[in-house]
Amino acid sequence: MGNRNFGSVQEFEELRELLTVERMGSYFRASAGDLRGAFALYEWNMTASAATMHTVGMVEVLVRNALDRRLSAWCEHKHPGRDWLDLSILDERARRDIAEARRRASQRNGAPTHGKVIAELSLGFWRYLVASRYLTAFWIPAAQHAFPHGPEDPRRRRILTETSLKNLHFVRNRAAHHEPIHRRDLTKDLQTSAEIAGWISPTARAWVLARSTLPEVMDARPGPEAPFGK
Hints:
- The chain has helices spanning 9-19, 21-30, 35-78, 92-109, 114-120, 123-129, 135-139, 154-176, 186-200, 202-211, 214-219.
- By secondary structure, it is mostly helical.
- Among the domains are: 7-37, no CATH class; 51-80 and 123-219, no CATH class.
- α1 packs across α2 (21-30), α2 (21-30) packs across α3 and α3 packs parallel to α9 (186-200).
């Protein structure tokens, strides 16, 4: 059982040294140098990071499956019998990511089936897959159809999809590496998550909004509100 009485000044001062003064810097600045306030914000940041990873994780799976479905169907029509993951139009970075995903899939799950490899590809892979470099190769013929409820113009849809995934990739990585996100507008990140999910399916949007814990976490943010920013 945890010690619910934890939290003396001496304990927090020791923790500050253990966590490093540098790491705690943004929390002290946001709390005007107050020791307890800084640790309350640090602990809240951990909760916010978990909620962020949970929310972005829902969107990541929706996005990768939607893109894979469309690219697989297009590839079967355009290149019968081939896997789109093996197409030469993928650049060197993508091929490295796929090779690494196959290696991990083999180690964890035995034979690296298509589905297992897809599950090992990171959000960064999908973010770059919708970049302008693949506009004519993937986006126009196939990938744009993964987001049927997005903006009507396919080029604008691509730009906004890439921008949204870039932002979600950024905040997810911050959260995953235990970096400060307490000055970020997480409500906006939830809106971005819901929007991208909604471009795939209105039901997906409703799911993200219903299950994300970010609203409750934002309401519980301790101390005076600091200006939002990246």
